[in-house]
């Protein structure tokens, strides 16, 4: 491992330490993290999972993602928006997901807010208009920010639209995950692969 936290894998590819040992995290890093998400259902799912992740490791959420998708009907906004208190209680008994009442209710709240945003051009356009004009170029983990002016503004704007569990740090993590910013370390094999940033 280099001082910057980059690990050269057996395949010869450079990845950050967090994506180097766990096969699930490595697959997610290589094929999904940092690639643009520009469909409503996909973006609603990412917002939901980032909210569930708050205070937990991303590995925990990734391992539970199949169960989350089953429990939340693949994060279909109309279906989740119609969930009742009985559904909340049912989900609190589901050992496959993170059983947190506030986070479950936030997913339902955010489904309704997602639907409401369709009158203003939709969730995708709303979120992506906060894309910054430049992206970080971190050489080490110490260089990777946890918030940005844009994530703070996005958090504030989503809250005004009725979204919950969308704090600035959570929104920066979302922006990283969907390619709005490229925080791949500069020596990573994935740096610059999103098509968003040259």
From TrEMBL:
<dbReference type="InterPro" id="IPR005019">
    <property type="entry name" value="Adenine_glyco"/>
</dbReference>
<protein>
    <submittedName>
        <fullName>3-methyladenine DNA glycosylase I</fullName>
    </submittedName>
</protein>
<keyword id="KW-0862">Zinc</keyword>
<feature type="binding site">
    <location>
        <position position="184"/>
    </location>
    <ligand>
        <name>Zn(2+)</name>
    </ligand>
</feature>
<dbReference type="InterPro" id="IPR052891">
    <property type="entry name" value="DNA-3mA_glycosylase"/>
</dbReference>
<dbReference type="InterPro" id="IPR011257">
    <property type="entry name" value="DNA_glycosylase"/>
</dbReference>
<dbReference type="GO" id="GO:0008725">
    <property type="term" value="F:DNA-3-methyladenine glycosylase activity"/>
</dbReference>
<keyword id="KW-0479">Metal-binding</keyword>
<dbReference type="GO" id="GO:0046872">
    <property type="term" value="F:metal ion binding"/>
</dbReference>
<dbReference type="GO" id="GO:0006284">
    <property type="term" value="P:base-excision repair"/>
</dbReference>
<dbReference type="Pfam" id="PF03352">
    <property type="entry name" value="Adenine_glyco"/>
</dbReference>
